[in-house]
């Protein structure tokens, strides 16, 4: 009897030790995110997710396209559980490469179907509108163009700025190819070049130039202006939206769970967290991006997505960046 009790006590102790080890291993499990979004934009929210979800989150920050390539090159050895991309094109590219897995529909159904994968392999977290930023001291509102095609008119010669090496501009050109076709997009690019469009490094430098009066209009994303207005409420720049063409594209920043994810359950919990009302309001308030969960209001002083009337395209098709790069080079823009 004594031996039996001793044996049972030993087995109980072993089971307890193994159970504690399993719990400890679960608690110490790390969720790894490859993020094309800057740490300044999402770092505070990730820290909040760690606290609220009890997760240990490790983030590798970098350029969205470069991280997508890294994931493909790493293959089955990739440590990433989640890819947080700056645009839909990169998410679509990874999906086409077979590197993503389906996210449960009940998690992503809060997002309008326009801004998520048709088969649930990625979901938009925030939206970013293409806008025309214009100098309010040099341009009358009633002379602003209704479409981006009007920017090739002689009256806009040398008065428009763009950033052709910037990823958001290239996504915009890809959208134009989907809406207008390659031939018309090529004609527009060449006409803009011939009309003296001024080249800048990125969206920020364009908005700075518009504010200085160096150019009158800049093709940018919606949220850059508000960083300048925070420092100077009288900064002389406002937004104008074209209607129904690629100039009013709503692209997304979104996430996918990778096929190699070792921590898929916590990856799903993290996505649920990003789609909570609190997280969506954080983006609207802090980064001035559009919440994509239905019912959450647009950022202050910005038109709603419905008011903008963006072109209806499958955002996953923005993945053809290579075709856009070839077109930009043929047009003499790059």
UniProtKB/TrEMBL annotation:
Residues 1-26 form the signal peptide. Keywords: Ion transport, Iron, Iron transport, Metal-binding, Signal, Transport. GO terms for biological process: iron ion transport. Fe cation binds at residues 223-224. InterPro entries: Ferric-bd (IPR026045). Belongs to the bacterial solute-binding protein 1 family. This is Extracellular solute-binding protein family 1. It comes from Limnospira maxima CS-328.
